[in-house]
Amino acid sequence: MTVINPPLNALDELDQDVLGGKWQQLQGALRERWGELTDDDLMQIAGKRDRFLGILQERYGYSRQEAERRLNDFLQTYSERKKALIEQKSWLSRNKGWLVAAALLTSILGIVAYYFRLVKSYDS
Fold first, then answer.
1. Residue 11 CB contacts under 8 Å (≥ 6 apart), including other chains
2. Is there a contact between 79 and 9 (Cβ–Cβ < 8 Å)?
3. pLDDT digit string (tens) for 48-68?
4. What is the pLDDT, as a whole number, of residue 98?
5. Which residues, 6+ apart, have CB-to-CB distance to 81 below 8 Å?
6. Per-residue b/e over 59-80, b at no fewer than 16 CB within 10 Å?
7. φ, ψ for residue 107 (rounded to 5)?
8. Higher pLDDT, 63 or 120
9. Cβ atoms of 60 and 36 closer than 8 Å
10. The architecture CATH gives domain 8-94
11. What digits encode the pLDDT tens for the residues 23-34?
12. I need a labelling partner for 55 at 20 to 30 A (CA). Which of 9, 35, 119, 124 fits?
């Protein structure tokens, strides 16, 4: 039997998020992906990978290998989305001043353009 080895960061994602106090956030993503999970299922899982794999097998009829593959795929995607959001927030916080300046400049240019149109219409 072939054992699927996911990327290391995905292996511990479930436990890391529980320890990091993000279990509620992860539960929403898990339920979005696997809609048949109940509140009781999530309480039983409690961030434990083996419990989750067992429930996936039970609820969806997956083999152990299929459950592992699907969970690993989900965790990899979840991890990538989380990193992308962190990078986006970081970029926004680093460039906040420039974004505000660009918005102000755009507003000023709009006002100036409006003023010149008014002046031009009075001249006509």
1. 72, 75
2. yes
3. 889 999 999 999 999 999 999
4. 85
5. none
6. eeebeeeebbebbbebbeebbe
7. -65, -45
8. 63
9. yes
10. Orthogonal Bundle (1.10)
11. 777 888 899 999
12. 9
